[in-house]
């Protein structure tokens, strides 16, 4: 926060200048000096600039904050972290098969988001690359790879798998990460293959809530979260860091 000094030469009201009066005798013990010789007058007046306060935009309360960001890294972070949040919630409130259906549909989008995060990683957090783009998302990406293979086994093409990923991003963009009735909307032929793949996936993979491999607390991504807090629209809330807007 900074304040500018008043400018008295802009044609506005003159600033007031306080100086010692020549008629005022010096106090006992003071060394008398000529007025204005060594003194620095205090300046104040109506033209003095007000303090500059930078405002930080509050985190959006609906949808997935940052998922439409113009910053490629921030957008990819929101797609990945928002997917993790939404899928974790789905496994908590929906039947296992329904949650598995969403996770299988999201598989391509999750993988693509982490790839983009790696490609667009800001130089400021390059030293945190392995933790943010490999160690922490690794277990989730392995689940995504399993889901994608289930889709391939069900007869889904690469285009259809990508279509499912797009439908997933569209769904969480519209509904947010805590919609109890979250669904993806795709054509019937794709939906049929998704159903087959989801049935296979749910039989062989535990719930997100019960998968011990998803515990990645040993890896430190604090530098990345600090950067995200300062530069991305979600301010780190998608990683579980609560941010309360104080109105500043």
The average pLDDT is 82
Tertiary shape? globular
Main sheet summary: 2 strands, antiparallel
| Sheet with most strands: strand arrangement | 1-2
Topology, element by element:
Blueprint: E1 16-18, E2 42-44, H1 72-93, H2 96-119, H3 129-135, H4 138-153, H5 158-175, H6 188-204, H7 222-231
Helix pairs in contact: 1-2, 2-4, 2-5, 2-6, 4-6
Structural features, described:
By secondary structure, the chain is mainly alpha-helical. The protein has a domain at 72-239. 46% of the residues lie in helices and 2% in strands. It has seven helices and two strands. The protein has helices at 72-93, 96-119, 129-135, 138-153, 158-175, 188-204, 222-231, and strands spanning 16-18, 42-44. A two-stranded antiparallel ribbon has the order 1-2. Helix 4 packs across helix 6 (188-204). The longest helix has 24 residues, at 96-119. The two termini are 12 Å apart. The model is unreliable at 1-44, 50-56 and 242-248 (pLDDT under 50).
Provide a concise account of the structure shown.
This protein is mainly α and 248 residues long. It has a domain at 72-239.
Question: Descriptors for this entry?
Answer:
248 residues, globular, mainly alpha, disordered N terminus, two-stranded antiparallel sheet, 46% helix
């Amino acid at each position: 926060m900074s304040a500018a000094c008043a400018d008295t030469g802009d044609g506005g009201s003159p600033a007031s200048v306080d100086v010692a009066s020549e008629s005022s005798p010096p106090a006992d013990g003071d060394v008398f000096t000529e007025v204005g010789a060594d003194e620095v007058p205090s300046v104040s007046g109506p033209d003095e600039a007000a303090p500059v306060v930078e405002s930080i935009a509050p985190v959006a309360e609906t949808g997935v904050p940052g998922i439409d960001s113009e910053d490629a890294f921030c957008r990819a972070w929101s797609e990945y972290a928002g997917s993790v949040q939404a899928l974790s919630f789905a496994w908590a409130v929906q039947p296992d098969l329904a949650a598995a259906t969403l996770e299988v549909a999201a598989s391509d989008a999750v993988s693509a988001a982490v790839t983009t995060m790696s490609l667009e990683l800001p130089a400021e957090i390059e030293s945190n690359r392995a933790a943010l783009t490999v160690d922490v998302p690794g277990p989730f990406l392995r689940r995504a790879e399993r889901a994608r293979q289930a889709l391939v086994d069900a007869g889904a093409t690469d285009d259809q798998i990508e279509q499912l990923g797009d439908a997933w991003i569209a769904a969480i963009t519209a509904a947010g990460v805590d919609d109890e009735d979250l669904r993806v909307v795709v054509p019937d032929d794709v939906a049929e293959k998704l159903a087959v793949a989801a049935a296979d996936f749910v039989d062989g993979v535990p719930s997100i809530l019960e998968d011990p491999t998803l515990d990645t607390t040993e890896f430190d991504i604090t530098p990345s979260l600090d950067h995200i807090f300062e530069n991305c629209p979600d301010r780190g809330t998608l990683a579980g860091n609560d941010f309360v807007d104080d109105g500043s």
